[in-house]
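Need DUF7884 domain-containing protein's 3D structure for a figure. Predict it.
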Amino acid sequence: MLFKQALETQLERWIADVREHANLPVRLRLWNGSEFALGRFETPDVTLTVRDAAALPLLLVPSLDNLGEAYVQQKIDLDGKLSDIINVGYGFSAAAKKAAGGMLAKVAQHFTHSKQEDKAAIAYHYDVSNDFYRLWLDPRMVYSCAYFEHGDEDLATAQLKKIDHILTKVRLQPGQTLLDIGCGWGALVIRAAQKFGAHCVGITLSQNQFDLATARVKEAGVEDRIEIRLQDYRDVQGQFDRITSVGMFEHVGKDNLPGYFGRMRELLADDGVALNHGITATDPDSGEVPMDGAGFMDRYVFPQGELPHIGLVLRTLQQGGLEAFDVELLRRHYAQTLRHWAENFEAHGDAIREMVGETRFRIWRVYLAGCAHAFTTDQMSIYQVICHKAGRQADTLPTSRRFIYDTTLGR
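Structure prediction for DUF7884 domain-containing protein:
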């Protein structure tokens, strides 16, 4: 009884403080029917319902991590437009950070990234079910940042443009060999074989991706030019004219990046070209995502995922024996991609709930919309880096960047 009274007293103080300093467009509704306005708005954008008093300790320190935890565990409900909900979440977190004197406790995390651990982490994220991803990705099921060349493309067009942008960047030629590290459901290697005439190997650690990619290669009639493997990049042998890695190195681990790029160098032909496309941190020290959301991501979304700053990417790439030839920022493209995904996810919400259950539905709902906000506001970033073996003669390299946009390649 005394504990409950103490919590209620804390809650009253917290409500007054939020109303005074954060002024959020939120209606707070408690389990007993009591309602409070957390800002000076006639019509709040979001209603936050506390379903159980057990949620109060999480709510009183409303970091993104705590709010996400309470939402996923169904201790709170959030009603309103998804974009408004995410904005409010960041508003709560900013207020909590300010109240804590600008600091929220962070626990340094270190992952070993053994082959077994990486396979388990990939299975957790990607083996939900292929039907689940079909509901909100484009028809090719490309699960990485699209390329909105003009800004008004639909998602399917932008994803195809992304693939062509990558294959054009690496100057893929007919008859060349291509290794795609983390091939997903096979969209890039199929395009590389069909349009550019390449011979491809695509590798993944996801059984579901392997099964569907294999089936799609057969359906496309390019079995003679594409091999899909269930394989770790550390176990690949041979050499390839071109190597692409799209949305995969986030699973490698910051400490393992020199080895990852070193392995890429070993697999690359002496005159070959590689491209790494990956999410990066905006913290120059490669720290965690701002606003304390890293704990939620590791627990519920990307186990063992780690994001390096682009500076660390370039340094470790050189340590691995590669030279960066071109670096392109795609943050604005990923913000738009994620908005498309989040909108598709909301549109198919009932079907997704039925397919994966309420808990997983809530995890992915928060994850997609939260990431859209993070890329929009420069809290996360993403780069494509073209590279080749270090030490190549300068006169063997293109003299300008025009080749990146040469759409006649592969025709």
